[in-house]
Amino acid sequence: MRSGRSCLAAAVAAAVVVLLGSGTAAATPPPAAAGEFAPLDQQGPRLGVPKAQLDAGLSCNGPLRRSAQDPVLLVPGTTLTPEVNFGRTYMRAFDQLGLRWCAVTLPSDATGDIQIAAEYVDVIGLSPSNHGTVVADAACQRECTPANHQQASQSAFMAALNSGTETFAGIDYTVAYTATDEIVVPNTPPNASSALRTGQGRIANIALQEVCPTNTADHFAIGSYDPVGYAIVTDALAHDGPAVRERIPLATCLRTTQPGVDRATFLPDFTGMVRYAGNSEGDAAKTPDEPPLGPYVVARR
Fold it and tell me: Most buried of 3, 93, 184, 209, CB within 10 angstroms?
């Protein structure tokens, strides 16, 4: 069982899991008033996606039993599959480090209802749209896929997601983001959309430019080959607690790609990922409006 908004919160959040938080979205009807959303202790429904279907969406680079570590979950961004997003970068890098990882394939290339995608995994992000994106507000004035509608900064989904605490005690949250993000906007300190702002969790919001001031990675770069984003992720994985900016080696700023990237095939690999993202809409049908909020999101009368 889940509390009212935790099923929503699972869709967009912070750093044992790698995510290219992405997408464009649409303007939506005015959301419900904050007081109408469910309190955090309101019990939510059981998962609606069958267990066999959830299991089929998970693939790992080895057995999980008797593993000395928890696996890193690789969750692709909107319009992408795990292989397209991470196959030539993080999967290779984690294999080289001997890390166990599992990849989560979301329905419709992650373009469907985020409330359903949230049942597959709790997500932690690289430039996630935790507070939506104003670029998306204007991108789908007529029709969009469900996930794109929901990532609009003014969507009912975003209003519900951020109506209460964003983090929880006992959980570490690391968000790496880039100030030169062209998809998630605004994404510059101190009001970056990706940043987590409230709650009792231990939070680290780190802009790439706070580590390397001349870094110009865009949205696609931070989620695929950028060495600074990778350094932040691996710092969080290697230590107790969230990542610490001061622990990132300054030599990272001299690198052009992260470990795992094949420089001989980098250009066609990266171009292919961006092309796939631009052309993919999965099988999620475009609609004029965002999906309705689940009944568990609303406070009981």
Answer: 184
Confidence of residue 111 (pLDDT cuts 50, 70, 90): very high
What tens digit of pLDDT does each residue of 251-283 get? 999 999 999 999 999 999 999 999 999 887 667
- The tally of domains found in the chain comes to 1
Q: What residues contact residue 253 under an 8 Å CB cut-off, 6+ apart?
A: 211, 212, 214, 215, 228
Q: What's the pLDDT score for residue 9?
A: 37
Is position 300 within any domain? no
Contact present, 85 and 116 (Cβ < 8 Å): no
Tokens 């965002």 sit on residue: 290
Arithmetic mean of pLDDT, 200-228: 96
1 falls within a domain: no
Buried b (16+ CB within 10 A) or exposed e, 195-208: bbeebebbbbbbbb
CATH of the domain at 75: 3.40.50.1820
Half-sphere exposure of 189 (CA within 13 A, CB side): 12
Which range of residues forms the domain containing residue 58?
6-293
- Could you please report the per-residue DSSP string of 134-203? HHHHHHTSS-B-HHHHHTBTT-HHHHHHTSS-SS-TT-EEEEEE-TT-SSS-S-STTS-TT---SSSSEE
User: How many CB atoms sit inside 10 A of residue 282's CB?
Assistant: 18
Domain-located, residue 301: no
The answer, yes or no, to whether residue 14 has pLDDT greater than 70, is no
pLDDT surpasses 90 at 11 = no
